[in-house]
From TrEMBL:
Pathway given in the UniProt record: Cofactor biosynthesis; biotin biosynthesis
Keyword list, A-Z: Acyltransferase, Biotin biosynthesis, Pyridoxal phosphate, Transferase
Entry GO MF terms: 8-amino-7-oxononanoate synthase activity; pyridoxal phosphate binding
Family, as annotated: Belongs to the class-II pyridoxal-phosphate-dependent aminotransferase family. BioF subfamily.
Superkingdom of source: Bacteria
EC numbers for this chain: 2.3.1.47
Gene encoding the protein: bioF
Aminotransferase class I/classII large domain location: 46-394
SUPFAM superfamilies: PLP-dependent transferases
Protein name as annotated: 8-amino-7-ketopelargonate synthase
Cofactor: pyridoxal 5'-phosphate
């Protein structure tokens, strides 16, 4: 007879590691959203001002996106029934890819199930063990995983240090393998913008493939939210553009944009694309509607940036470290409040929640030891009253905890 699970010792090492997190004060439990992802919503039964979501443009519950999803369910059902390469490519999937390609000013696009799989699946499939990856030290985990899976040799340059990136390129210039330069367009923990234009210059100079992950730049930077490539005027110079449908677009998924041959190759070789069922038609329809809104309502992005500027100014005036001292300076709606100590940061986050503000504490290993922070994110839909109320709570709580 099998032993009851509680008596088995095979996974006891995981319990020990969880106990260690609890001792450090960085263990957390998932907060559960009871209603709609919105500027003010209900987590764990408590109404809070939400400064933690990636819903930059408030599209998660937009009426046009809801209508598009409901109509797609009526027209096409709830699921696609297969992976894209077998029987799961629906007309609506192709419409979405064509719409994104037009929006991003490229030849073609492929949609993945998530931004993570878009990055990991692309990097791992376009390079091999003879090749080299020149990667910013603060690039997203999905880029790092894709680089490891590719078995290419990974060279990491200091954050946004273009001269260091060039040194690394010079070191491998005479090696036979291909070279890939890769950066985030917007870095997810510090909110600063990658030097896309200068890295494009390096890619041109050394004949390297240029790749940008625009997850946090999509819907935020560039004309109508076209991203960092548009922001820097680098159209035609970035070989691989990755974006997300899960943040500003308000739904779920990731995408890769580039040449027709790149996308055709990913159809054949990107493992997450080959071995994952395609999006439900309702999600594809939702994303199409979201791109329509980006095209037709640029005022959403203007509100996002107005809120961002105001919130940063007020946090700075209050005396918080919001980057630029021990960490890079934020340049986008992602604004970290640097606390430093992991335990204190998580205690601060919990105290803010109890006082009515949802602002997530982030500690090691997501950020380096000693760089723990509360990460705040603005949206276009926060009102000035909500921001003032949140600022009041943040300042009062920080003073009570001797953070300010």
């Amino acid at each position: 007879m099998a032993h009851p699970l509680s008596e088995r010792s095979q996974l006891r090492h995981l319990t020990a590691q969880l106990d260690e997190l609890k001792q450090k004060g960085t263990h957390f439990r998932l907060r559960v959203l009871d209603d709609i992802q919105a500027p003010v919503c209900t987590y764990d039964g408590k109404k809070v001002i939400n400064l933690a979501s990636n819903n930059y443009l408030g599209l998660c519950d937009h009426p046009k996106l809801r209508e598009a999803a409901i109509q797609a369910i009526r027209d096409y059902g709830v699921g696609s029934g297969a992976v894209r390469t077998i029987a799961g490519t629906m007309k609506i999937h192709m419409e979405l890819e064509e719409k994104i390609a037009r929006f991003k000013n490229v030849e073609a696009c492929v949609v993945f199930q998530s931004g993570f799989t878009a990055n990991a699946g692309t990097v791992s499939s376009i390079l091999g063990k003879e090749d080299f990856i020149i990667s910013d030290e603060l690039n997203h985990a999905s880029i790092i995983d894709g680089a490891r899976l590719s078995r290419a040799k990974i060279k990491v340059f200091r954050h946004k240090d273009v001269a260091h990136a060039e040194e690394l390129l010079k070191e491998v210039a005479s090696e036979p393998g291909r070279k890939l330069i890769i950066t985030d367009g917007v870095f997810s923990m510090d909110g600063d913008i990658g030097p896309v234009d200068k890295l494009c210059d390096l890619a041109d100079k050394y004949g390297a493939i240029m790749m940008v992950d625009d997850a946090h730049a999509s819907g935020v930077l560039g004309r109508n939210g076209r991203g960092s490539v548009d922001h820097f005027g680098c159209h035609g110079r970035v070989d691989v553009q990755v974006g997300t449908l899960s943040k500003a677009i308000g739904a779920l998924g990731g995408y890769v944009c580039g040449s027709k041959d790149l996308i055709d190759y990913l159809y054949h070789r990107a493992r997450p694309f080959l071995f994952s069922t395609s999006h439900p038609p309702s999600v594809a329809a939702t994303c199409i509607a979201a791109f329509d809104i980006l095209e037709n309502e640029p005022e959403r992005i203007e509100r996002l940036w107005s809120n961002t500027r105001y919130f940063k100014e007020q946090l700075g005036h209050a005396g918080f470290d919001i980057g630029g001292k021990s960490t890079p300076a934020s340049e986008t709606p992602i604004t970290p409040i640097i606390v430093g100590d992991g335990r204190k940061t998580m205690d601060f986050s919990r105290a803010l929640f109890d006082a009515g503000v949802m602002a997530t504490g982030i500690a090691f290993p997501t950020v380096p030891e000693g760089k723990a922070r509360i990460r705040t994110i603005m949206t276009s839909e926060h009102t000035r009253e909500q921001l003032d109320q949140a600022l009041d709570i943040i300042v009062k709580t920080a003073k009570q905890m001797s953070i300010l």
